[in-house]
Amino acid sequence: MSNDDNAFEWKTLDRDLNRFSRLEAASMYASRPLVGVGLSMIFVALAALAAALLTGGNQPGDLVVIVAAAFGAYMALNIGANDVANNMGPAVGANALSMVGAIAIAAIAETAGALLAGGDVVSTISKGIIDPASLASSQTFIWAMMAALLSAAIWVNLATWIGAPVSTTHSVVGGVMGAGVAAAGLGAVDWSTMGSIALSWVISPLLGGIIAAGMLAFIKWRILYVEDKIAAARTWVPVLIGVMSAAFGAYLAMKGLKHLIKLSLADACLIGAFAGILLGGLSVPLIRAQSEGLENRNRSLKVMFRLPLVISAALLSFAHGANDVANAVGPLAAVVYAQKTAATAGQVEIPLWVMVIGAVGISLGLAVFGPKLIGMVGSQITKLNPMRAYCVALAAALTVIVASALGLPVSSTHIAVGGVFGVGFYREWYVERRARKLQQERPRTTLATEERKRRKLVRRSHFMTIIAAWVITVPAAALLSALCFWALSVFGA
């Protein structure tokens, strides 16, 4: 056999092996969702088993608690799959964190936030959406809470499947509203509270977008477009780190420490100011050391923003775990309380085992299903780098503080995604402005107006999908909850 024949046979074998490799990779990719579903089912079953062991499982009402624990576990998985992406997406999209690193940091921070500073007390009527006195009995209240929990979980699951980041808080609110209407009519709902929540649909993303765009404009003005970029960065990056530290100090004080000690808004702002001055001062030598030997160009500046961005993402996850774990376990805790006491009003202490279900479920949902939404928020809406992503993270903290000072209800999901949109639309405006200026100076060397309009920096298809999902979240969750309440009432009776 000649050398040419041997070479031909080896090439044929290589092609066949490549085909097998591609087939194996495709099979693994196709089976990955099944692995996630399997792990999720195991976790839900373990949550139900834990509830059975801890309640005894031999009393007539224990079965209700066991089923509610399964619903709570399912909701926690969906919160991890959808909500946490808003905290980690910008850092991953800016290449400041790998996907694995982001998931590991978020899982630790979310669990710590939920267990260390999570909601020790939760209202059984979910922030006053429905009047418990309008419900006929404690059993009706229990069916309403279970329907709200299941419907919110189903809606967030659907939103994750289509790739839309939605507010889990609004999903729970819609679920409670729908169950309340199904149980006691329209009069059971506090419509003024619902009006303020609807107002937050507009306020949250607008505030987040405006603050993020404003921060990016400041960075461009004071750092990116000056003659000596490195010197400007040495001056202003510590200031920005101080602002970030102050914002997160106040944010964590309001969202986390308030569960441990009583704090006013002024107290939280004082804590934030102290943290900002301290950490801003400590960052001066660090930024100076990082900037040594860097070239005077924009690419060099990204190095200085990576560590603050990673820290801000971890702090956002901690605050999210402390604040939003109640979305998963609040209705479950209300069911446990109502089943034990036959009461439907007042404040309910969340048992530790219920908190553990929420914390572990959020982390598992993030690890198994989170990459899809992390990729959406981080890279598919608009292109992010460490500076742009830093603006989004800072906007999230500042917006919550501003909204709290004004007494406005806001959604952390809407703020973060609104910040990404704000950065993207600001970049579009800025690029268009520069292009028009260049066209006036050199009309023959610039893009045509039609071509500039075609080159959008924010993907409009994702923009419309996300906005539509935000608008229909409360009514969709309410409708699902009404159906779930009817089914539970019929089959539970």
UniProtKB/TrEMBL annotation:
It is found in: Membrane. InterPro entries: Phos_transporter. Pfam families: PHO4 (PF01384). It is a multi-pass membrane protein. One of its GO terms (cellular component) is membrane. The chain crosses the membrane at residues 34-57, 63-81, 93-117, 141-164, 197-219, 231-254, 260-282, 303-322, 350-369, 389-408, 414-430, 463-488. It comes from Pseudooceanicola albus. It comes from the Bacteria. Keywords: Membrane, Phosphate transport, Transmembrane, Transmembrane helix, Transport. Belongs to the inorganic phosphate transporter (PiT) (TC 2.A.20) family. GO terms for biological process: phosphate ion transmembrane transport. This is Phosphate transporter. The keyword Manganese does not apply. The keyword Transmembrane applies.
